[in-house]
Structure formats: C-alpha cells, structure tokens
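Lab notebook page, bench 4
Experiment: in silico fold of construct C2
Operator: M.H.
Input chain length: 178 residues
Purpose: comparison with the prior construct
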Amino acid sequence: MRRSQFLMLLLLAAASACPTSAQTIPPVNAKALDDSQVVLPKAGSTQLLILVLGFSHKSGDYCTPWDKKLSADFPSNTPAEYYQIPVLAGAPSFVRPMILKGMRKGVPPNDQPRFVPVYDHEAEWKKLVNFGAADDPYILLAKPDGTVVWQTHGLCTEALYAELKNAIAKATAETPKK
C-alpha cells in the first residue's frame, strides 16, 4: 500500500512540475481588405489583441454587432486593438476572389484595415476557440505575444461585452509597459 501511495505522489509531483502550455493564437501574416499587410502577434507591441473570428458567411452577420462596439471603443492608439478575422480556409480557391470582392463592398473603407481574411491554420483556430457552432462569432482577447487570456462566442450581449471590457482592464493592468 505504501509503495503505491509513494508512486502516486511521485506521479502527481511530476505532473505538477511540467509546465502547462498557454494557448496562443496561430500566426497571422495576411492582407487586410485595404491590402495592408497584417502580422499577428506583433513583435514588440504593447497592445492587447481583440480578435473576432467567423467561420461561415452567416457568422459575418453576427460578428457585425461586436465590430461596431469595438470600433467605437477602441480607435487606434488604445491599450487594445481589434481585428475581424474571417477564416476562409474552407472556401474553394476559385471562389475566394468573389468572397473578397463582396467583403470589400460590404465593409466601410475605414474598417478595412482591421478586416483580415485568413486562409490557413483553420484547424488550429477551431481548436483554440473550442469550435462548436459554425455561425457563431468567436471572440478572443490575447496579450501582445498572442497568449489568449479570455474568450467567448455567440451573439454580442451587454453582459458579454462587459465581461470583455473587464478582461481588457485586468489584462491592461497586468501587461508591462515598454
């Protein structure tokens, strides 16, 4: 009995000594709708990242309320910057130009630098957001290095938006200034 208890304690100690890997966003190196290059996470940045991800055409409709609130609350040069990330990896390559053309028509020019379609890492994004509903928007808050500190999914409600703002305030207080 004592030997099994010792082995159990040894296994428990070994497990607790192993570092747990924090979830980080997949690398983004893509063009925004205004053709500017966007690289995330940004080396040397001190801004938090708010990412609104969509995985289907219909999810774009549900991302819009999040984008409107974020656009109003987080203009440039704030502690956090946001991007809308439509994940288009599943769209056939011959259809993608038509999708982009439709997006450019539907997104106001001022918002196009924050609208960054991605064509890779779909499985990683889905795993990161605990993908379940294709039409839901998925919202991530990440440190400047890409480490995710908060996430949710679903329709933009006052309660969820308040949670996001609280998470931003907490993460801002914890993020070292350069």
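Observations: The radius of gyration is 19 Å. The mean pLDDT is 86.
Next step: discuss at group meeting.
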